[in-house]
Amino acid sequence: MEPTYERTVVVGVDGSPDSLVAARYALRTAALRGLDVELVYSYPMPLVDVPLSGSFVDDFEQAGRDLLTGAVDALDVPPAVALRTRFAETLPALLMQELSRSAPLVVVGQHATAWFDRLGRGSVASPVAHHSGCPVVVVPPAWRQVEHERRPVVVALDGEAVSLATLDFALDEATFLGTEVVALHSVPGGTHGQTESAARNVVELLARAQVRHPSTPARVVTVRGVTQRVLLTAAESAAVLVLGPPHTDGLAAWTRSVARRVMGGVGCPLVVVPRRRHHHVPPASALPELLRVS
């Protein structure tokens, strides 16, 4: 029977130490959220002009299964998490995109950003991180559970309505980790009045989303500077950095996006939350007492 993915965190592995770090992150996240985990390895069959022998195909498939077995053996699986594996003879981009349509979360190691680029200037990052049906987490090789989970969840907001889904994920993550949310509003320039107006929009967004998380501390921090530099600095002391997709669709928009630019160098897990066209957050009410602007 084909497994279902509605309650399964999908993590891409390739036998590298970095992908094992991503798998450990996926197991930790699944344990907190009451989900299962599937380790996924895929690689297309070589394209050659001569027929491949049956033994070659068998050896190719066995190598993939051996890789997955080795990954499972290297992991400490929490008792409450069911772990399974999947090997497919296809492009990693296609498989991860397909599974993201029903999975609640897709996880990859940070080194896999190069894997993205080999398939056409972000052609994996675009469908998975930009057009994905679920949030995508990029885990750096230096991630360690004990060190990172004591830190706040940082979410970058810009006052646009599309940020609601991004903020909602950040509040969920902070609730599971037992930490606070820092809503970071970077202001590269503009007049004082424009800065104040944008900051008010961010406060209103946070108040609307926090109706579902009244006990999760949250605050807005407005900073001046280039967004990319600000985010990389903030990530150094964050448990997770949460970003939304570009405001417009298309590969060109993704290539120019902040998420794409910081993906390869961020020092904490980076979550790219997809645009949810039918995402609903309760209407605004009074600002929560825990909300403060600094």
From TrEMBL:
Pfam families: Usp. InterPro entries: Rossmann-like_a/b/a_fold, Universal_stress_UspA, UspA. Gene3D superfamilies: HUPs. It comes from Microlunatus antarcticus. This is Nucleotide-binding universal stress UspA family protein. Residues 7-140, 150-274 form the UspA domain. Belongs to the universal stress protein A family. It comes from the Bacteria.
